[in-house]
Design brief:
Blueprint (H helix, E strand, L loop, with lengths): L1 H5 L5 H4 L3 H16 L11 E3 L8 E3 L10 H8 L3 E6 L2 H12 L5 H8 L1 H9 L5 H12 L11 H16 L4 H14 L4 H27 L4 E4 L3 E5 L8 H15 L5 E4 L22 E2 L3 H12 L3 E4 L2 E6 L4 E3 L2 H13 L3 E7 L2 E6 L4 H14 L6 H8 L3 E4 L2 E4 L4 E3 L24 H16 L2 H15 L8 E5 L6 H11 L4 E5 L13 H4 L11 E5 L11 E3 H7 L6 E3 L7 E3 L4 E6 L4 E3 L7 E5 L3 E3 L1 H7 L4 E3 L12 H14 L9 H13 L3 H8 E3 L9 H11 L3 H10 L6 H4 L9 E3 L10
Parallel strand pairs: 7-11, 16-22, 16-24, 17-18, 18-22, 19-23, 25-26
Antiparallel strand pairs: 1-2, 3-5, 3-6, 4-5, 8-9, 9-10, 11-12, 13-14, 14-15, 20-21, 27-28
Helix pairs in contact: 5-11, 7-8, 10-11, 11-12, 13-15, 14-15, 17-23, 18-23
């Protein structure tokens, strides 16, 4: 409400440009805010306008939500109240009054039975349904309607004239009051006033009985609004259709009137205020502050559980998003919403005595209090570690989380131990998907790109442990293939199915720098974006084989996929900090450059994409066996279908294993071929030698020279490797150059028991 009062000019299109009404509303809002008591509420007294004690109840002094414009009332209260309305109150009450007195009203009966249809039929000549509804009430209360004769509305107006005459003997008190009012105000519509008084009395009797019913059920009626009331929302009692039906039956038993209740949707008519104002959490008890410092001490207590300061970053929990965030704009919006609704009041002296105004109702004042509260917020040095580690093994959705390690779906209430910075913006598919969709996904995406079933099975198992955050595997992948081979298709499927858990970084970040960066932490700023993700993709690596200076930085690859070791980095204008990553690297490449040092490739897995997808014209023209027809719409349409996301999710769930899966022979062969090709010493040695532990198995120095020449390896490297793996040189024969590496046998000579 404070926001609306301070920004009324922004809402003139909704509130209206009538200057007098504008000033009245401004005055009403100001009076309402100034009347807040120490308990944070506004005391409202209701009274009858005239001394006769009949008719509707009005809020004394107009200090209530009752008389405010609907748009304002709905905006400030729709989250706190149910707006309960007597449906078609006056026509329904008049029909029952006439029935009880034997007055025939066929048109009124028809209107009450078919109200929606009649209002719709009248909307044409009367502009809108709202105008038609007003016309019906005008006719009931004796007003004049300008319309053609012979119409349904004209006949209804004549019937209401007869009804007013017929009710005179049954309403002597109301007639007398109407006559007195008419004499005082020179009003001629005496019978119309009589009927209005009669109906308002019946309406008020029913309203008070409704209030009595709801309060008897433990609910609080906060506002009386003539033909309805506003009931505070409660965690203990939910207002349902059956409860409303019980209320109607209670009122009928007490008053004799049958009135149907309905909950009005207050969201339909609201001011377009900022969304963050709706996320405020107002404490039950108000606090009274004399300055911003006192207010900051109050506010820091409000946010202690949902805002955390850790190593230079501020995290805020967003209950509407079900996740924590350190993104500055989100954090500020959350803090503003909390602070502007914090119920911290400042005492203000007026001629009438003390009044209380919200201290943080203005954005500028709220920002001062927030700044002070953040300075007072204690540092929680272990928060980031708890936030990072608690969701490992889980995927978080809107309706809960799936834990790969237990194989179960949980609601967030079931697993309060899990915190997350990422929530997939859809519900977890508790029910398994349609098998036909799963089959289509396998056929069109995985068989089309990866080829054989054994490669697909291993890929899904590999990807399942990656999306689960199993960082201790220390594995990463190269996705090798020509353009249009399907690498981007698999990446798009991951991004669409698991938004937030998948990110992309510049592949050139992994290139070995010719000169060391003067600010190594700043050079790794991109890695901070991978702190909470699970799949990290790279594309378009700058690779020029003619230049030997372009190499992948093996030490950086080992650091990035180190199994949870700390990485030190910082972004612009921020302090350096140490963090961990659980993400798995997938490098999409057409060609692979050299890697230095080569031992970084020891945990790499290479997926080779065997096909190239082309247009029908290219397929007919070239006709090569590794060409396939391009599937238009697969990447942009099929991969963005929710049922495909659900099918993919379940494929990964079924493929997940508690231990690192054994690499399939095809992928192992492709990986080994690549590693041998780039001269990886460990892979070459593994491919050439097998340790037997038998003295009669040996490798000659001549053979070592041959291997060194063939694979372009230093002879000393091979000798050192053999010794490191368990072989021992036979010094007695070394002079003759006969034996080296006792206990080894060449892999290609494994059919021989010993060398001659």
């Amino acid at each position: 409400m404070q926001h609306i009062l301070q920004n009324m000019s922004e809402y003139k299109d909704v509130l209206g440009n009538n200057e007098a009404n504008y000033k009245d509303l401004e005055s009403s809002l100001g009076k309402y805010l100034s009347c807040a008591k120490q308990d944070g509420t506004v005391q409202v007294d209701y009274f009858h306008v005239h001394d006769h004690g009949a008719g509707r109840l009005f809020a004394k002094g107009g200090i209530s939500l009752q008389g405010m414009k609907k748009a304002v009332r709905n905006t400030v209260s729709y989250q706190q109240y149910y707006d309960i309305d007597m449906q078609n109150a006056h026509p329904t009450l008049l029909l029952q009054v006439c029935e009880q007195r034997g007055i025939d009203t066929p048109r009124l009966h028809e209107y009450c039975a078919n109200r929606a249809e009649i209002l719709k039929s009248l909307a044409g000549p009367l502009s809108t349904e709202a105008d038609a509804k007003t016309a019906m009430l005008v006719a009931i209360n004796g007003g004049s309607l300008s319309g053609p004769s012979g119409t349904w509305l004209n006949a209804f107006e004549e019937e209401m004239r007869a009804v007013r005459e017929a009710l005179v003997p049954f309403a002597p008190k109301q007639l007398k009051l109407a006559q007195a009012r008419a004499a005082k105000k020179s009003v001629k519509n005496v019978l119309g006033s009589m009927v209005n008084l009669l109906l308002c009395e019946a309406e008020n009797r029913a309203l008070l009985k409704f209030k009595e019913f709801f309060e008897g059920r433990g609910l609080t009626v906060g506002v009386l609004v003539f033909d309805g009331c506003m009931v505070e929302r409660s965690d203990k009692v939910e207002i349902t259709e059956s409860l409303l039906q019980e209320a109607s039956e209670y009122v009928e038993g007490a008053t004799g009137f049958r009135i149907k209740l309905a909950i009005k949707d207050m969201r339909e008519t609201r001011l377009p205020v900022p969304d963050y104002l709706y996320n405020s959490h107002i404490p039950v008890e108000p606090r009274f502050a004399v300055d911003n410092a006192t207010a900051a001490h109050f506010f820091v207590k409000d946010i202690r559980e949902t805002v955390k300061a850790c190593r230079g970053k501020t995290y805020a929990y967003h209950p509407d998003l079900l996740m924590w965030s350190s993104e500055p704009t989100r954090v500020q919006k959350y803090l503003l919403a909390r602070c502007m609704g914090a119920n911290i009041l400042r005492v203000r002296e007026t001629k009438a005595g003390q009044s209380y105004v919200p201290m943080t109702g203005e954005v500028s004042e709220a920002l001062k209090v927030i700044k002070g509260a953040l300075a007072l917020l204690p540092e929680d040095t272990q928060f980031e570690e708890r936030l990072w580690s608690s969701s490992i093994g889980c995927l978080c959705f809107k309706n809960g989380l799936y834990d790969f390690r237990t194989g179960r779906f949980y609601t967030y209430e079931d697993r309060p131990d899990v915190m997350t910075t990422i929530v997939i913006p859809r519900d977890f598919p508790v029910e398994r998907p349609d098998p036909a969709v799963t089959r289509e996904l396998m056929d069109r995406v995985f068989i089309g790109t990866l080829g054989s079933q054994e490669v697909i099975d291993y890929y899904l198992a590999f990807k399942a442990r990656a999306i689960a955050g199993e960082f201790r595997d220390k594995q990463w992948a190269i996705m090798l293939g020509e353009r249009n081979c399907g690498k981007g298709l698999l990446q798009e499927l991951d991004k669409a199915a698991f938004p937030g858990y998948v990110n992309e970084v510049n592949a050139n970040s992994f290139l070995l720098k010719q000169y060391a960066d003067s600010d190594a932490s700043k050079a790794l700023s991109w890695a901070l974006d991978c702190e909470f993700t699970r799949l990290t993709y790279t594309n378009e690596l700058r690779c020029d084989h003619s230049s030997k200076s372009i190499k992948l930085d093996g030490n950086l690859l080992k650091s990035f996929q180190s199994g949870g070791d700390g990485i030190s980095a910082r972004k612009n204008h921020q302090d350096e900090r140490v963090f961990r990553v659980a993400t798995r690297l997938f490098m999409n490449m057409n060609d692979v450059p050299e890697v230095t040092p080569k031992d970084a490739m020891g945990t790499m897995v290479l997926f080779k994409f065997p096909y190239k997808f082309v247009s029908p014209e290219e397929l007919d023209e070239k006709g090569l066996p590794f060409y396939r027809l391009r599937d238009d719409g697969l990447k942009d349409v099929f991969c963005h279908r929710p049922d495909v996301w659900d099918a993919y999710t379940w494929l990964l769930i079924d493929a997940y294993s508690r231990e690192r899966p054994t690499i399939c022979p095809v992928v192992q062969s492709h990986t080994r071929e690549y590693l041998i090709d780039i001269g990886d010493e460990g892979t070459i040695m593994d491919s050439l030698f097998r340790f037997t532990g038998r003295r009669e198995n040996f490798v000659t120095l001549a053979r070592i020279k041959e291997i060194a020449a063939e694979y372009k390896l230093p002879k000393g490297t091979i000798k050192d490797r053999l010794e490191r793996l368990g072989g021992r040189p036979d010094r007695s024969c070394c002079v003759r150059g006969v034996v080296h590496g006792r206990g080894f046998i060449m892999v290609q000579e494994c059919d021989l028991e010993a060398n001659p």
